[in-house]
């Protein structure tokens, strides 16, 4: 016969087992809930991390593009400065050659050929002022005057002055009455042909570079 004490002991064991089962069940449910939360948090963290990484990559790419752009701009600027330096050096050298040229007899032949463009001024009625370099004024004024007279311009209509600007050579014709100015100076001729000179210069540099390369 089962005693009351034995019944109590059995009941106690059953009660403990129920409590243990309940606790295990709750712990299992908690573990599952924590796993879900951890997964959700991990996804959230991964998403935020992805956004941060993507932003960082975009910034890095933008910085890369900026650096490349600045590098190209700097290289272009340097190339332009180098070209400008070559052009200035060449033009200064060319002007030096012209200064030497105007000291030769060939310069007089150039003057005659250059002044023939004023044939349309034959019989011009207004007075003209002929500007020239100081060197031409001292050595070639009469020669220039004779050429202009041979073109049909009246001697009494011609006045001669030294140009205030550095015109290198040639002449500038001015009609004060009409406020008209015809620039036939060598400086103006250089300005008119500067683009062609530059193109020829860099074409020659390019060909030389190809040969040397």
Q: What can you see in these coordinates?
A:
71% of the residues lie in helices and 10% in strands. The protein is α+β, with helices and mostly antiparallel strands and 213 residues long. The protein starts with a helix and ends with a helix. The model is unreliable at 208-213 (pLDDT under 50). The longest helix has 98 residues, at 4-101.
Question: What descriptors fit this protein?
Answer:
single chain, 213 residues, alpha+beta, rod-shaped
Topology, pairings included?
Layout: H1 4-101, H2 106-115, E1 128-132, H3 134-139, H4 141-150, E2 158-162, E3 170-175, E4 180-185, H5 186-212
Parallel strand pairs: 1-2
Antiparallel strand pairs: 1-3, 3-4
Helix pairs in contact: 2-4
Roughly what percent helix?
over 70%
Please give the radius of gyration in angstroms.
48 Å
- The topology string of helices and strands comes to HHEHHEEEH
| Continuous helix count | 5
Shape, per Cα inertia axes? rod-shaped
Order of adjacent strands in the largest pleated sheet: 2-1-3-4
Largest sheet: 4 strands, mixed
The overall pLDDT average reads 79
Give the low-pLDDT segments.
208-213
End-to-end Cα distance: 117 Å
Number of beta strands = 4
Structural class: alpha+beta
Strand content: 5-15%
């Amino acid at each position: 016969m089962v005693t009351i004490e034995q019944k109590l002991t059995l009941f106690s064991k059953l009660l403990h087992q129920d409590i243990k089962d309940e606790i295990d069940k709750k712990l299992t449910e908690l573990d599952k809930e924590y796993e879900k939360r951890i997964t959700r948090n991990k996804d959230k963290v991964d998403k935020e991390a992805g956004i941060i990484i993507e932003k960082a990559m975009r910034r890095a790419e933008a910085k890369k593009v900026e650096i490349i752009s600045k590098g190209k701009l700097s290289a272009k600027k340097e190339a332009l400065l180098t070209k400008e330096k070559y052009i200035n050096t060449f033009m200064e050298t060319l002007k030096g050659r012209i200064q030497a040229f105007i000291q030769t007899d060939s310069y007089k032949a150039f003057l005659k050929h250059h002044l023939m463009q004023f044939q349309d001024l034959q019989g011009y009625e207004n007075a003209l002022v002929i500007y020239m370099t100081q060197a031409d004024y001292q050595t070639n004024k009469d020669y220039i005057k004779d050429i202009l007279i041979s073109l049909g311009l009246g001697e009494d209509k011609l006045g001669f002055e030294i140009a205030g600007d550095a015109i290198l050579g040639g002449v500038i014709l001015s009609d004060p009455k009409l406020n008209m100015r015809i620039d036939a100076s060598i400086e103006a001729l250089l300005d008119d042909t500067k683009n062609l000179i530059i193109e020829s210069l860099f074409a020659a540099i390019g060909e030389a570079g190809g040969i040397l390369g």
